[in-house]
Write a structure and sequence with these properties.
single chain, about 260 residues, mainly beta, nine-stranded antiparallel β-sheet, five-stranded antiparallel β-sheet, 5 helices, 14 strands
């Protein structure tokens, strides 16, 4: 079964700051399995990484989220994130990237940084809220996610983000290998975008999913193990993480692309 790490963004969720024509905003959620997989994994507290590796916790920093389109230039449009930091709950931190308006003639809303932190049952099952972002209703042309290292000033008062900044990491993976604990640190930048019409309905919104398949992160192309403590293997692990990322339209929150019928 594919272990997918899902960050779903449900555009329009009754957040303060949307325009009068917008009854909902954007929520970002996270999971490691599709709805079917989550049911099958009930009671689990980790995911398998193959070759005797178990993943117990995944943390990553989404430095920036952007959605581009004419509605972003409306006076009431504003990007924001709200809530408290914590695994499985609402978490977010407003940063200098938050805002909206025209950039070189392009109308866009930006938000970030925010952190995704999953462990225990939140890692192994279900879909869990991460943060909220205000997005006016209307039709957009493109959205982008960027996973990237941040500094202390960007982390602000958010303890989780501050820890990631201090570690100089965009991604931290904690787990065990042969019974011994490990932590894999990566400072990679991962940019993902989805192009094409994105309609944010004032009543029902729209959902997108940032999906990472963690099951292959510590495997070489021939299936052999890439040791998380092996400095020589780090670049290959980074490449696997980067290659595992995708963004899909996912209104039913199952990790599959609603437009192309593919996914988890």
């Amino acid at each position: 079964m594919r272990n997918s790490f899902i960050v779903s963004a449900s555009l329009c969720a009754a957040l303060v700051g949307c325009s009068s024509s917008t009854s909902k905003g954007m929520t970002v959620s996270a999971s490691t399995a599709s709805a079917v997989g989550a049911t099958a994994r009930a009671g689990a507290a980790s995911i398998g990484g193959g070759n005797g590796i178990t993943i117990d916790r995944i943390r990553l920093v989404v430095k920036k989220f952007e959605i581009e389109g004419a509605p972003a230039c409306t006076p009431a449009a504003s990007g924001s994130s709200s809530g408290k930091s914590g695994t499985g709950g609402m978490s977010g931190s407003s940063g200098s990237d938050d805002g909206s308006g025209s950039d070189g003639g392009e109308c866009e809303i930006e938000s970030g940084p925010f952190m995704v932190d999953l462990s225990g049952s939140d890692l192994a099952t279900g879909v869990h809220p991460v943060t909220g972002i205000d997005v006016p209703s209307g039709t957009y042309e493109e959205l982008r996610f960027q996973i990237h290292v941040i500094d202390a000033s960007q982390a602000g008062a958010n303890a989780g983000l501050a820890e990631m900044a201090a570690a100089g990491a965009s991604i931290l993976v904690d787990g065990t290998q042969g019974g011994a604990a490990f932590q894999f640190k990566s400072a990679i930048t991962v940019d993902q975008k989805r192009e094409g019409k994105i309609v944010v309905d004032p009543a029902t919104g729209v959902n997108v999913t940032l999906d990472l398949d963690a099951s292959g992160w510590f495997k070489a192309s021939d299936g052999s193990k890439l040791g998380p403590a092996d400095a020589v293997a780090a670049s290959a692990i980074d490449a696997n993480i980067r290659a595992s990322v995708r963004v899909v339209h996912d209104d039913d929150h199952d990790g599959k692309d609603d437009d192309h019928g593919s996914g988890g």
